[in-house]
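re: the backbone from monday

yeah here it is again, tokenized this time
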């Protein structure tokens, strides 16, 4: 009986779940009220490398990449480098068998310099410069996504017909999804892609097919960001298969690839919904097979481009408290040594975050405070109405989870504060990947006065 009870008892929550936030799966309480990630204390790592510090859990990145490969064994999974890229990140995703989606010559060059195989790279961009296209050709990137009429002729002119360039055409299916209007790209009225409605997509496809140097491999769409429902992706499959059928009927070609972009949402707060990858894999694969069978079309190879869902949950930002200000109206402002220059997302999109004290045990009650940055702007608020111990004081360390995507990659030089250092943690060891940016770095770029 006892045995049965034990066997069928609900599994104890994993330590990371018990922490009540979107922490990496490796997160555990550590000695001295520290929080271990990848077997290393966040406070200990912050003492070693200074703050603000971004800590990346290598195991979390790898296991998320592996989960995509497992869920979609027949698809191609490209990590969207815009979420965050450095040479180590490029190594991890390459080793896990993913390709890479880049959207600038900077991302492209960094990845190839790190040894990422160019054939597994896809280049995006709504305004690729002639130099970018030339670099992409010179490095022999696997695919280029066409996102404008001018690009078709420009790229064709760079290509010798004996070594055609594989391209996809980015289309707008007219599907609204995503967390904020600023990142909604599946609908008209924004700068990306060729709308299907009205015929722009069909025209672009016809023009690409006319270029002997361009090999049209398929269609691409990207709906938006931080999407947690599956329905928009299923609608995108429907819309893109309809277009594949039109292309077959009009031009007599069946395109072998269908790229559904990224936009897979993660948890920022403990109760948030998140993108269900296994369910996505089953339903999208199934829907694609059904729609293709209905139209007597060969099933194209699926491509997905997750960025946030791979990098986001693997990152933790660690800040030091610089001041605590209690105002007469009852608000408390806890100011830290980073802010909108390392994480512009709250100011840009009103994005919510959770935050936790690390490295000191507090028995004080909970207080509602605003965690603010150190920049000269009232909107520089990192976490509004955070619940933290009432005795927070300068010198304390605060850790913000789900910090791995679109923070460092959107970091700025505001107030010459300098971008934070980045450390990787794995198997109980921490190593510095990127050093802190100093004012000397800013000065070094000056060449006149
Ligand atoms: N593919 C394309 C063509 C994209 O434009 C993007 C993101 C992705 C893939 C990856 O999307 P993900 O899976 O990471 O959502 N700065 C905003 C996000 C902008 C995303 C731009 N494109 C934010 O901080 O929420």
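seq for it, each position gets an aa:
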């Amino acid at each position: 009986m006892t045995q049965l009870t034990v066997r069928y008892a609900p599994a104890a929550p994993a330590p990371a779940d018990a922490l009540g936030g979107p922490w990496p799966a490796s997160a555990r309480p550590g000695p001295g009220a520290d929080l271990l990630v990848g077997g290393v204390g966040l406070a200990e790592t912050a003492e070693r490398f200074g703050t603000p510090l971004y800590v990346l859990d290598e195991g979390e990145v790898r296991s998320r990449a592996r989960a995509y490969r497992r869920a979609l064994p027949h698809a191609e999974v490209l990590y969207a480098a815009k979420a965050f890229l450095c040479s180590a990140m490029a190594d991890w995703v390459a080793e896990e068998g993913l390709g890479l989606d880049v959207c600038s010559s900077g991302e492209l060059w960094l990845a190839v310099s790190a040894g990422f195989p160019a054939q597994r790279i896809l280049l995006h961009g709504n305004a690729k410069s002639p130099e970018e296209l030339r670099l992409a050709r010179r490095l022999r990137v696997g695919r280029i996504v066409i996102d404008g009429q001018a690009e078709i002729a420009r790229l064709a002119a760079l290509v010798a017909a004996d070594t055609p360039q594989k391209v996809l055409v980015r289309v707008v299916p007219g599907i609204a999804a995503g967390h904020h209007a600023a990142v909604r790209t599946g609908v008209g009225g924004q700068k990306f892609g060729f709308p299907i409605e009205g015929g722009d997509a069909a025209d672009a496809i016809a023009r690409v097919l006319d270029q002997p140097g361009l090999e049209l491999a398929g269609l691409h769409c990207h709906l938006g960001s931080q999407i947690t429902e599956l329905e928009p992706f299923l609608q995108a499959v429907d819309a893109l298969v309809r277009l594949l059928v039109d292309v077959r009927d009009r031009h007599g070609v069946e395109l072998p690839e269908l790229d559904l972009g990224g936009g897979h949402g993660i948890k920022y707060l403990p109760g948030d919904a998140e993108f269900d990858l296994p369910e996505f894999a089953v339903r999208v694969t199934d829907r694609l097979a059904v729609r293709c069978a209905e139209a007597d079309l060969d099933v194209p190879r699926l491509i997905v481009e997750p960025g946030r869902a791979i990098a986001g949950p693997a990152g933790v930002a660690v800040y030091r408290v610089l001041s605590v200000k209690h105002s007469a109206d009852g608000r408390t402002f806890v100011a830290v040594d980073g802010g909108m220059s390392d994480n512009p997302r709250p100011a840009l999109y009103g994005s919510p975050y959770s935050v936790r004290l690390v490295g000191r045990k507090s028995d004080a009650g909970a207080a509602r405070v605003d965690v603010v940055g150190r920049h000269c702007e009232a909107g520089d608020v990192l976490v509004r109405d955070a619940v933290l111990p009432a005795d927070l004081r300068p010198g304390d360390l605060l850790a913000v989870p789900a910090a791995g995507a679109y923070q460092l990659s959107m970091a700025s030089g505001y107030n010459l504060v300098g971008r934070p250092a980045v450390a990787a943690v794995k198997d109980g060891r921490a190593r510095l990947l990127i050093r802190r940016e100093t004012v000397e770095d800013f000065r070094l770029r000056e060449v006149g006065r």
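The chain has 14 helices and 21 strands. Residues 1-9 have pLDDT under 50 and may be disordered.
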